[in-house]
Amino acid sequence: MARPRAEDYDEKRKAILKTSAELFSEHGFDRSSMSQIAQGCGVSKALLYHYYANKDQLLFDIIRDHLDELIAGVEAAH
User: Fold this and answer.
1) How far is CA 21 from CA 5, 39, 50, in A?
2) What's the CA dihedral at 6, 36, 33, 55 to 10 degrees?
3) DSSP secondary structure, 9-69, as one string
4) Cα of 1 vs its chain's centroid, Å
5) pTM, two decimal places
6) pLDDT digits (tens, 9 = 90+) for 19-50
């Protein structure tokens, strides 16, 4: 039986994305490690890997969330 998601799953995911985006901006995507991201989030690497398998997935979700916000803004303006 699959384990249910924690109630704060989406909140933790958003915090991970925010910290990752800041680190990518400051150090560059290629020079930011999953260890640095975990440390910046105040979580273990194991917990970080529970949410994201790799940096590429993190970057994809950062871009997707940003585009979703832009689309919502454009739709609200119409």
Assistant:
1) 24, 14, 18
2) 30
3) HHHHHHHHHHHHHHHHHHH-TTT--HHHHHHHHTS-HHHHHHH-SSHHHHHHHHHHHHHHH
4) 27
5) 0.84
6) 999 999 999 999 999 999 999 999 999 999 99
